[in-house]
């Protein structure tokens, strides 16, 4: 005989309890495995349609045992949210914050009022660095929820550290008073490193004329002018034929 809906729910909850025990013992791997099995059992029931028409071969009491009523639906969704939230606690322990956020979000889809799922998601967001997301979840939970005030203090501290870091990173630009263009800065640096101009050469003082130079300048005779001789053609009769031969020859 096939197990009833209630028996399937009980089997899934047994696996959830085994997961809780493993979590308490610090065995996150075993806890996640049991939670996964619990999710498989509960998800199969959650997807099963309620009010299935009675088969001719089934007795009325058997049909009632295999049909999910509204109370069982609510129990399934509530426990699915709990198991997903517990998986989020395991991922937090393993510092897998992204996965913790994912499973806690899934838990809240099953049960939006699950406080632990939202609180654990806020913790994961804070540790991941999503300060705005963490603040939204913590604000939504309110100060009356245990642990929210402590997480809010951590959030304020992280926000202050982030602001201080940003202020320091911007300090170098703000202290200059103006933004210097990179090309302008390079030009200023090259001009400051340029070699100084060479000093102008000293003027050589003129020497005073001596007595000997004065005497030589007065007694020096003017140079003799030699007239250029006029060109006189030679009277040799053999010149003209030789010139004629060169003119008619090859270049």
From TrEMBL:
Lineage of origin: Eukaryota, Fungi, Fungi incertae sedis, Mucoromycota, Mortierellomycotina
Bias (Low complexity): 188-209
Organism: Entomortierella parvispora
Spans annotated as Disordered: 154-251
UniProt-listed InterPro entries: AIP/AIPL1/TTC9, TPR-like_helical_dom_sf, TPR_rpt
Repeat region (TPR), residues: 81-114
Keywords: Repeat, TPR repeat
Protein's name in the database: TPR-like protein
PROSITE patterns in alphabetical order: TPR
């Amino acid at each position: 005989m096939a197990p009833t809906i209630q028996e399937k729910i009980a089997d899934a909850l047994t696996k959830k309890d085994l997961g809780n025990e493993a979590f308490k013992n610090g065995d996150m791997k075993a806890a996640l495995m049991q939670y996964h099995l619990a999710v498989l059992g509960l998800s199969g029931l959650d997807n099963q349609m309620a009010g299935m028409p009675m088969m001719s071969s089934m007795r009325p009491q058997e049909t009632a045992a295999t049909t999910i009523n509204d109370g069982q639906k609510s129990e399934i969704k509530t426990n699915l949210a709990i198991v997903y939230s517990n998986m989020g606690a395991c991922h937090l322990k393993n510092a897998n914050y992204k996965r913790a956020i994912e499973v806690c979000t899934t838990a809240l889809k099953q049960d939006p009022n699950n406080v632990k799922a939202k609180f654990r998601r806020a913790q994961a967001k804070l540790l991941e660095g999503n300060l705005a997301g963490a603040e939204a979840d913590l604000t939504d939970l309110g100060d009356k929820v245990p642990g929210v005030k402590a997480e809010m203090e951590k959030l304020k501290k992280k926000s202050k550290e982030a602001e201080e870091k940003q202020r320091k990173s911007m300090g170098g630009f703000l202290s200059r008073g103006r933004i210097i263009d990179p090309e302008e800065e390079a030009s200023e640096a090259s001009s400051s490193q340029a070699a100084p101009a060479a000093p102008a050469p000293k003027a050589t003082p003129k020497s005073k004329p001596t007595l000997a130079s004065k005497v030589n300048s007065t007694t020096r005779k003017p140079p003799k002018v030699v007239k250029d001789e006029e060109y006189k053609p030679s009277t040799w009769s053999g010149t003209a034929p030789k010139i004629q031969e060169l003119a008619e020859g090859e270049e």
